[in-house]
Design brief:
Blueprint: H1 2-13, E1 17-21, H2 28-33, E2 36-40, H3 49-52, H4 62-72, H5 77-80, E3 84-88, H6 92-101, E4 107-110, H7 119-140, H8 146-168, H9 179-188, H10 195-215, E5 226-231, H11 240-247, E6 251-255, H12 274-283, H13 294-306, E7 311-317, H14 321-336, E8 342-347, H15 354-368
Parallel strand pairs: 1-2, 1-3, 3-4, 5-6, 5-7, 7-8
Amino acid sequence: MADAFAMLKNIKETGKKVVGFYCVYAPQELVLAADALGFALCATKEEAIPDGEKTLPRNFCPLIKSSYGFAVTDKCPYFLYSDIIIGETTCDGKKKMFELMKEFKPVHVMKLPQTYLDDNDKAYWLNEVKILKDLLEKELGTTITEEKLREAIKVLNEERRLMQELSECMKNDPVPMTGQDFLKLMWGRNFVTDRTEFAQQIKEIIKDMQESIAKGEAAMPQGAKRILVTGVPTGIGSEKVIKIIEDCGAAVVYIENCSGMKQFVTLVDETKPPLEAIADKYLSTPCSCMSPNPIRLENLAKLIKDYRIDGVVDITWQGCHTYNVESRVVKEFLKKNGDTPFLQIETDYSQGDVEQIKTRVQAFLEMMA
């Protein structure tokens, strides 16, 4: 963390602008086209929660309490050095967090529609994207041209294609990488300062994985139960369920949530007008805040088939009502469409329930034997 403080301080001294965001709904192409650096700010560590609870209710979602705790104490360098924060109305808890943040940091909240299915909602969201573009130009003292947007789209689409290619390697049995290591790669993308270098690193990792597959080398034993993890974002610091699954001998071959592959599966259409294409891509994100949310179910059905999934584990944070409610929807959908074994784990960032979760995971895996 000390290195991040020094790095960002040096970057700011060069005059470079920094934008922080809390959700995959934030259009990163606009940040890149504004010649700014964008960093994800959602906190996934328990250490900041006591500071968050000085202001927020204890029964709040741990992600919100951790995020606010890091922000209000200036312990997160990416928040501290951000010139502006992009928020979004994905849940009532985050909306109130952003309201409090505005007291000590410039925050712009993008207002999401209730669904991604209607043309009126698509038009509404496109206007929100245009408002953000105008705001970034004003606040960062820059001009976001169509040419810059098209270039940003190409850069980020290439990243998405590479992450898709990387994910394809996880279809192999045995898998060439653990789910924990795969999560670290996707999580690291949130803190990239040189996108060209990052793309090259991913290409090298893909090459290494393909070579490992050709040699028969693997991270998990052949025939290990293949698990898909879905639900809430599970970043570094809150990956305990993924670790438990793999410690119990199963292979996490796909992480579907927002901190996983969800942000990479859809490209921005490079043939459309840039702002319209960007709006379309981001609005199609199948978050549980959307009601109804059929794209999530459609994607899960395809992933289960493509990755030969033996079981689905749905992680929900305590206090995250939309994902908790939608967990039942997912369970019933899977029951009717192939009867894929399903396990919901409701937890928080603490380690107090690790043994309980381990017992449940072991029983879940034994059921599939």
